Amino acid sequence: MSNYSSTKTEIKNYIRARIPLIIIETSERERAERMLSAIGNELSADIYYYTDTTQVTRLSGAGERVDVSGDPVPYISGLFAKKRNVIFCYGDVGKIGEDTVYSREIINALYSAVRSNSTLILITKDPVFSKIAQFGMIAKLDYPDLGERMEQINSFVSQFKSLYTVEWDDSDVVVAATLLSGFSEIQINNILSNEISSKGGLYKAEIPRLTAQKSKLYGTVPNIQQVNVPNDMTASGLENLKQWLKEKEPVFFATDDKLSRYSLSAPKGILLSGVPGCGKSFSAKLIAKEWGLPLFRFDIGSVYDKWMGESERKMKEALDFIDNVAPCILWIDEIEKALSVSHGENDTGKRILGQFLFWLQESTSRVFLVATANDVFQLPAELFRKGRFSEVFFVDLPNADERRQAIKLYSERCLHVSLNAEDLDELVRLSDGFSYSEIEYAIKEIAQLVFVNGEDSLNMQAFRDRFSLVVPIEKSRPETVSKIREWGRQRAVPAYKDDRGEK
Ligand SMILES: Nc1ncnc2c1ncn2[C@@H]1O[C@H](COP(=O)(O)OP(=O)(O)OP(=O)(O)O)[C@@H](O)[C@H]1O
Ligand SMILES: [Mg+2]
After folding, report:
1. Residue 274 — φ and ψ, nearest 5°?
2. Which of 169, 182, 362, 472 is the 20 to 30 A CA-CA neighbour of 388?
3. pLDDT given for residue 234 in this prediction
4. What does the pLDDT average to over 94-104?
5. Topology, domain 226-395
6. Contact predicate 357/396, CB 8 Å
């Protein structure tokens, strides 16, 4: 059952039971208001309603508007004293989290409600003072869930499809509804209306950008930054990773109902390990681009704090933020550095790691974790327990084909030249053992030379000179590279097509 309809049933039952106080915890007052009108009609009950702007009116049933000059509590108390079985909803209740004069006035009104078999309903998003809360029950009205968002988008689409171009089909509606989690009904409506009026319709290509506002909406937390993902990323190699992503994408975006029918759960994330400079950070961005999701980089190391309890608080704040901006890709770069604090006797480190792993396992929000590690040997074993990562991928030095693609790509992008096959062959030979970043670096050095000395200085000799200056990591740190490779080949799945015959 959806969140709206289950909360509605819950509140209806409380009203029927004549509970003196019902607190509706929500930041969507209009939605709660609509729900109460419907309940009033279904129960054929009069519901009095107060907000600062409307003063006292009726949500259901008929009655005069009464101006109470901004202070409804004496009016409510008076009504409860005069009549029995009154239902009064206070929509604009101020802060009642503490013991104040205002809170006591409300408590007095509640005593009257008890005596007259009446019900006071408070709509608030803030905490409620315990002495008030003990009079009744709390019903939480969360933001629309996936089913409700789908329903809302579908009805929006049918309302506008004769006037505007609507490219979205059923599966696009599911993706859009998934992306729009964490938004209120009004916000969703605003986003869709803005989309239609600014773009002239609902287009498939625009779906990933629907949530551009999201990180602004939730403010910022110091340990997490949104990373821009270029739209025109060209990857060489990484075929296996790309194939895996294609297969998992529909599962990640599937509804809970659909997943539970097959006893599946959404993929949680991957660990990327491998030789430095071979595309771990690059792959994190590529995943965000392929799935059209926002990418957030989590600097997990910076949550550690020397003050008691502060690290846990910061971690909780960060995890709450992530839950709010979901669905998203959460990227933790060089996870071993952050987590190695948990080795040995460091208790805070262990607790923080525990808190993070627990969240990783239990969180139901659609967050896909991409963790990268250079030194997998430093990683705590519990990180690899089954179910934590959906897959562990390994990136290796590019083979001849992949180097060819990368050289072609970077020389076109940075030097605006298209090398012929013969020159490319030579550069592929010269770059044996280079990582992607070494190829990129060498070509950018040539670009700098051309920038300073002019286009005429660009020739094959410039390439040969620069390429021969590179001391690839395979030569400078052979033991490190072979250790990483050995681990990767035994414990991980290759991110590239697995035909490394030459190595
Ligand atoms: N498959 C690829 N295709 C094209 N370019 C790539 C690819 N992989 C990496 N690159 C480029 O190579 C450079 C290094 O990649 P990246 O930063 O992802 O490596 P890394 O594995 O994260 O390295 P480090 O261990 O140093 O963090 C980047 O500028 C990236 O654009
Ligand atoms: Mg990196």
Report:
1. 150, -175
2. 182
3. 86
4. 91
5. Rossmann fold (3.40.50)
6. no
| Ion ligand 2 — residues with CB < 5 Å | 280-281
Domains 3-140 and 400-470 share a fold: no
**Ligand number, closest to the Cα atom of 374:** 1
**Angle, CA 139 vertex, CA 136 and CA 145 arms, to 5°:** 180
Q: What is the pLDDT of residue 313?
A: 87
Where is average pLDDT lowest: 50-54, 117-121, 331-335, 347-351? 347-351
- The type of residue at 183 is F
Task: Report, as an integer, the average pLDDT of 70-98.
Answer: 93
Q: CA-CA distance, 174 to 153, in Å (whole number)?
A: 9
CA of 253 from ligand 1 middle (Å) equals: 27
Measured from the CB, is residue 277 less than 6 Å from ligand 1?
Answer: yes
CA 222–ligand 2 middle distance (angstroms): 21
Between CA 117 and CA 80 the distance in angstroms is 8
Which residue type occupies 302? S
| CATH code for the domain defined by 3-140 | 3.40.50
Structure letter (DSSP) for residue 417: -
Task: Give the pTM.
Answer: 0.73
Counting ligands in written order, which one lies closest to the CA of residue 276? 1
- Residue 341 pLDDT class (50, 70, 90 cuts): low
**Model pLDDT, residue 76:** 96
CA angle 316, 329, 340 (to 5 degrees): 55
State which ligand 1 atom lies nearest to the alpha carbon of 274.
21
| Nearest Cα to Cα of residue 54 among 24, 89, 102 | 89
Beta strands (DSSP E) in 250-324 are 269-274, 295-298
Cα gap 221→302, rounded to integer Å: 11
Residue 1 has pLDDT above 50, yes or no: no
Q: Where are the domains of the chain?
A: 3-140, 146-212, 226-395, 400-470
* Spacing, Cα 96 to ligand 2 middle (Å): 49
User: Which-ligand-closest: CA of 297?
Assistant: 2
For β-strands 136-140 and 119-124, DSSP reports them as: unpaired
Residue with tokens 């270029």: 230
Cα angle vertex 138, ends 133, 141, to 5°? 145
Bridge partners of residue 23, in order along the sequence: 122, 138
Output phi, psi for 489, to 5 deg.
Answer: -70, -30
The Cα-based distances of 399 to 202, 294, 340, 409 in angstroms read 42, 31, 32, 15
Residue 336: partners with Cβ closer than 8 Å, 6 or more residues away: 373, 374, 375, 376, 378, 379
Q: Is 400-470 in CATH node 1.20.120? A: no
Q: Is the CB of 397 under 6 A from ligand 1?
A: no
